[in-house]
Amino acid sequence: MTQQLNIVIISSDHYPDGGASANRHLAYSKGLCELGNSVTFILLGPQKDKRSSFDIDGIKFINTFKKNPFSDLFKNHGSLISVPSIPDGKNQLKKLINRGKVDLVILLDTHLWKLLPFLNLCKRHGIKVLHERTEYPDVALKRGLVGRLHYSLYRRFILARINGLFVISEALKKHFEGQVKTIPVQVINMIVDPARFRSQDCNQDIKSRYIAYCGAMDIEKDGVDILIRAFGKALEQIHNAGDLKLILIGEVPEPNLLGKYNALIKESNCEGRVQFTGYVNRENIPGLLNNAAALALARPKSKQAEGGFPTKLGEYLATGKPTIITNTGEIDKFLRDGENAFIAIPGNIDSFAGKIVKVFNNYQEATCIGLNGYDLVQGDFNYLQQAKRLNRFILTILKS
Q1: Least buried of 95, 222, 299, 383, by fewest C-beta within 10 Å?
Q2: What Å distances lie between residue 175 and 116, 145, 151, 209, 236, CA to CA?
Q3: For the sheet containing 38-43, what is the strand order?
Q4: CB-based burial of residue 292 (10 Å sphere; 0-12 exposed, 13-18 middle, 19+ buried)?
Q5: Is residue 323 a contact partner of residue 200, using CB atoms and an 8 Å limit?
Q6: Tens of pLDDT along 16-47?
């Protein structure tokens, strides 16, 4: 019989609509609950749900964020806005510890000043602590002297004192094992909850066939510019493009960037075929992805891509639709071009365009490949399978 644990997670993220990171946290927490554990989040950041506590999928959330003068002062500094909530967060954790409701604490933030107060509290009470990282430190931190100083202090006061670390890729595991050799490191790969993608409902009035992209609209991370150019090239080669569109799901952060994209759309001869949805609620995203003819992610090579693993890839595969991606990071450890996905060369517009053409010039075969990708969601990337792996790691840490 599985040991039932009281697991407390400290986070400054937004739930349930915090994007890829929040989806990941919710997926493995749901799995941990289904394995018989109790999972409670102590939330340091602002939430849409202003209640002091609420529940999602059996997970309890305690909201400690209160609007105060610091909220406006830090509104343009996401890493600082939750600092005033730390005292209340500590008090909530103390209450749970005093009631015997804490077996282990997981820290999700990456900044020293958010982690240290909770780590010190846990150490005083003999509570073991796990920490999660999904990116290389030099991606998440500021560059230059400030970033190097912060990481030096983080290594000394956080990494050297936690009881275990879990990461999203083998590359990150190797990195952190090289940094601190005294703690165990476990890979908990990309996670997706297939149940989220059973719905076909969406509020967007899109009548034509479309390729969908969902995520950050900046150029560096996911290569939206490459995707637009490749889409324009592919339209010239698809036998029956008809009314095929490219739907970009997400908010463009700056008006100037939207202007650049519109100029690029015109230059790529796909005016009227590219649509920006703007912000979309989490509950409407599965319908938009499910209703797409294909899903696309033209992520270029980068330090972030090397160490991370795109959560949206799992969401794409969960639809069972053809998925067109680039070969970055550890994607080729799980996916094979022409077997369960269509894999292009990173940063190569012609290569990505060729994969789009291949999908739509033989769509029946492409749908079979999409269904093969769906099988990965039921196995390697399934939230319950990854939660079982995390649960075993937690039990190992508690016994050590």
Answers
A1: 95
A2: 22, 21, 14, 43, 44
A3: 53-56, 59-63, 38-43, 6-11, 104-107, 128-133, 164-167, 185-187
A4: buried
A5: no
A6: 988 889 999 999 999 999 999 999 999 998 88
Per-residue confidence (pLDDT) for residue 141, from 0 to 100: 64
Tokens of 86: 């730390």
Q: Which residue has the tokens 């997400």?
A: 250
- Sign (positive/negative) of CA torsion 233, 350, 211, 307? negative
Residue located via tokens 């569109």:
245
- pTM for the whole structure: 0.90
Total number of residues shown for the chain: 400
As beta bridge partners, residue 245 has 210
- H or E element at residue 60: strand 59-63
Scored b (16 or more CB within 10 A) or e, 78-111 reads ebbbbbbbbebbbebbeebbeeeebbbbbbbbbb
Angle ∠(339,340,342) on CA atoms, nearest 5: 85
Looking at residue 280, its amino acid is: V
Note whether 193 and 383 are within 8 A (CB): yes
